Amino acid sequence: MTKAPVVIFGGTFDPIHIGHLRTAIELGDWLQVPEVRLVPSGDPVHRVGTQASAQQRLAMVSLATEYDDCLVADDIEVNSESASYTVVTLEKIRQKVGPSRPVVLVMGMDAFMHLTSWHRWQELFGLAHLLVVARPGYSPEMNSELKEEVGPRVTEFKDELKLTPSGSVVFHQLTPLGVSATQIRSLIVKGQNPRFLLPESVWEFIKLEKLYGFKEG
Ligand code: ATP
How far, in Å, CA of 87 to CA of 32, rounded? Predict the structure, then answer.
């Protein structure tokens, strides 16, 4: 029997919230894989600095993943010496799992549309499949460079993600929960209550570490 694909879902997770967690669980169910690996970035390349440190964001992801066996916190980027380039992370994963195991990289439509600005982006397809999560009714507007590379790789056959090690692109529609890390940080700094937008243990951690401008009321 072939081994289940390694499914990785990256983000800054500053902090992790129910939108990330529901997406991971729904994708795990849809793909019928035993686990989805949540990979907090170390040193973000594509955006300005995070508020919580890499170790704090990893700690929050670890707390959140305790609620479900399908969710796994992966420290591959946080505990890496090098900058968090996705292609480098995938090379490390590939080295670990060997050439034949499928690897699936999950990304949102926004990230996908900017893919051509990523470091060594064309090499991603030799390392992993891409699973692009899109809002229902939203279709990608790809620039010509992206279209040329991705067009022949697109498939509606999700089992392709299990049958070959890398190279396919699947779009999957998911209705995201209306929650973002920005919204949560903004509530906290204003002294408002973010409870139920994120796991209780993560909220407790934020209070303990006084993250995002939290002040004892
Ligand atoms: P910020 O508000 O700081 O930009 P964020 O909430 O978008 O953060 P990220 O860590 O940047 O969180 O996101 C990681 C991944 O999770 C991205 O692919 C993003 O598209 C996806 N994501 C973010 N929020 C949601 C949500 N509510 N539902 C589903 N996916 C989400």
Answer: 25
Burial of 104 (C-beta count, 10 Å sphere; 0-12/13-18/19+): buried
Map residue 82 onto helix, strand or coil.
coil
- Given a cut of 90, whether residue 84 has pLDDT beyond it is no
Asked if the structure places residue 199 within a domain, the reply is: no
pLDDT tier for residue 13 given thresholds of 50, 70 and 90: very high
pLDDT tens per residue, range 159-207: 999 999 999 999 999 988 999 999 999 999 999 999 999 999 999 999 9
- Ligand 1 centre distance from Cα of residue 2 (Å): 31
Residue 209 lies in a domain: no
User: Which atom of ligand 1 sits closest to the CA of residue 111?
Assistant: 18
Side-chain-side CA neighbours of 184 within 13 Å: the count stands at 26
Assigned domain for 55 exists: yes
Ligand 1 centroid to Cα of residue 111, in Å, is: 10
* Residue 162's CATH number: 3.40.50.620
Atom of ligand 1 nearest to the CA of 109: 20
The pLDDT tens digits of the residues spanning 55-82 come to 999 999 999 999 999 999 999 999 988 7
| Domain limits for position 114 | 6-176
76 CA distance to ligand 1 middle (Å): 19
Q: How confident is the model at residue 46 (pLDDT cuts 50, 70, 90)?
A: low
Distance, CA of 76 to CA of 23 (rounded, Å)? 21
Is 46 part of any domain?
yes
Number of domains in the chain: 1
